[in-house]
Amino acid sequence: LAALAALPDGLCFHAPAMLPAASKLRPAAASATGLRGLRAGASGPEVDRRAVLVGLLGSLSLSQAAGAEVIGPPPSATSLAQGDIQALVSPGHWIGQIIGVNSHSEKWALSGATPEQASTALKEALEGITPQERKKLLFEHLDIKEASPQRVRALTWTKSEWLDVLDVSFRATPDGKGTEATISLYATGFLPTSIPLAPIINTALFFFPFVSPNPVAGGLLQVTRSQDLYKMVSSRLPKKA
């Protein structure tokens, strides 16, 4: 709890919400109030234990942090140490993919482009992302894990280090005149990875529903991300003759 209390106010992009109220997209304010209450009750010894855990996890992540292909300012050492584990388990996606308030999947029709061209366009869009685009997409930190003609997969963190996954697969259309891309964007857990042992805690909280709004563009975060990424990719594809 002390670790959660240390988070800045107003940065709860992944906020808890009961199902009947999910469409209102109003849980962030309530969550921020809760964080202030936790902060007021935090005790010195609890903060000291958190510092020890962060130090231990940070030392374990040095080799990973050195080799990570992170775009933008790197996340904390704790997030780097726990990111791959939480992305692999993704307990926030177990129910989230059914409810649809913190995950989104859709298909893109990219006519006139090969899978390799489409994959390269997405990779270049992510590598060349501007500060304005990162702010709009809430891609404070971005780590490309795989980039091949068949798939692009990346881990993305918000400013408060909630971890999401971007996973896009590419295949040629049956007529060979274009590419069909299947994009999947989803939140991995209720708590940010900056909190020590977040993958374990998030697994225990897998049943707790939460919504991911986009406080910058409005609407659901993963939906608006998919729309913006489609535009970024399309603008980089070869123009039709």
Spell out the key features of this protein:
single chain, 241 residues, alpha+beta, six-stranded antiparallel beta sheet, 10 helices, 8 strands, 43% helix, globular
- Which structural category do the helix and sheet elements fall into? alpha+beta
End-to-end separation in angstroms reads 59 Å
Helix content: 40-55%
Main beta sheet, described?
6 strands, antiparallel
- In DSSP terms (H or I, runs of 4 or more residues), the helix count works out at 10
Mean pLDDT: 78
SSE sequence, one letter per element: HEHHHEHHEHHEEEEHEH
General shape: globular
Stretches with pLDDT under 50, minimum 5 residues: 1-68
- Strand portion: 15-25%
**Overall strand count:** 8
In angstroms, what is the radius of gyration? 19 Å
- Please give the order of strands in the largest beta sheet: 2-4-5-6-7-3
What does this structure look like?
- A hairpin with a 5-residue loop joins strand 6 and strand 7.
- Helix content is 43%, strand content 20%.
- The radius of gyration is 19 Å and the shape is globular.
- The chain has 241 residues and is of the alpha+beta class.
Overview in brief:
The chain has 241 residues and is an alpha+beta fold.
Please give the structural blueprint.
Blueprint: H1 2-5, E1 15-16, H2 27-40, H3 44-60, H4 62-67, E2 70-71, H5 77-89, H6 91-99, E3 103-111, H7 115-127, H8 131-137, E4 141-147, E5 151-157, E6 163-172, E7 178-187, H9 198-204, E8 210-211, H10 221-234
Antiparallel strand pairs: 1-8, 2-4, 3-7, 4-5, 5-6, 6-7
